[in-house]
Amino acid sequence: GAGVSQSPRYKVAKRGQDVALRCDPISGHVSLFWYQQALGQGPEFLTYFQNEAQLDKSGLPSDRFFAERPEGSVSTLKIQRTQQEDSAVYLCASSRGTTGETQYFGPGTRLLVL
Amino acid sequence: AQSVTQLDSHVSVSEGTPVLLRCNYSSSYSPSLFWYVQHPNKGLQLLLKYTSAATLVKGINGFEAEFKKSETSFHLTKPSAHMSDAAEYFCVVSVHSGGGADGLTFGKGTHLIIQP
Prior knowledge:
The complex is a heterodimer of chains A (114) and B (116).
Chain A: E1 5-7, E2 10-13, E3 19-24, E4 31-37, E5 44-50, E6 53-56, E7 65-68, E8 75-79, E9 88-95, E10 104-105, E11 109-113
Parallel strand pairs in A: 2-11
Antiparallel strand pairs in A: 1-3, 3-8, 4-5, 4-9, 5-6, 7-8, 9-10, 9-11
Chain B: E1 3-6, E2 10-14, E3 19-21, E4 23-26, E5 32-38, E6 44-50, E7 56-58, E8 64-68, E9 73-78, E10 87-94, E11 105-106, E12 110-115
C-alpha cells in the first residue's frame, strides 16, 4: 500500500486479556518504530526494528510488552495481561533508511482496557 | 538525552491572522527537528524537517520554522491561518547516537484553534 497501515483500528479488552496489534510498514522500509500515545499527550517511543532485528526496546514499559518483526516487514506488538494503564493509542512508523530519515506514521490502534 | 518543550498547550487565532507555535529543545548533539500535525482520527503528518542545512525551513500548507541555535528554539509560523489548520501540532527532536536508531522525542503538543 501507499502508507503505513495498522490493525485493528480500535480494540477493547478486558483487564488481564492479551492483545496483539499489527503494523504493515511502507514496502521496502528498513526501520520500524512503535510509539504509545496516552490521552492528551505526545507519542512516546517504545521500540525500534532495523529489518528483523530489534535494536532498541528501551521504551517498553514492562515485560508484559513484546514486539516482533520476524521477516523484516510486518510487525506485531503484543501486550500480555493488559492493565487499565495500557489504554492508549499505539502508533507505528516506518522509515526508508536507518539514520536521519523521515518517519511515516500509521493511523494508530486505539486500545481501551476495561 | 534530548527533550522538547512546547510553550503553549493551546493557541487560538482568528482565520486569516498569523500563527506562532513555540518550541524549545534540549540536546547534547546536533539535533534533527521536526513539526508534525495530527488531525482528529488521522495519523501524524510531517509538516517540515530541519537537518542542519538552511536554518529557515519551509514546509507544507504554508508553514515554516526557523532553527535558532543560540535560543535553542524551533518555532512554527504561518502568515495566514485557515480553518483547516485546526489540529494538534507536535514539535519533535531526533538525535542520531550512532546506534542506528532515531527514536523521536515528542513535545506534549499544542492544540491550534482557528476562530472564524
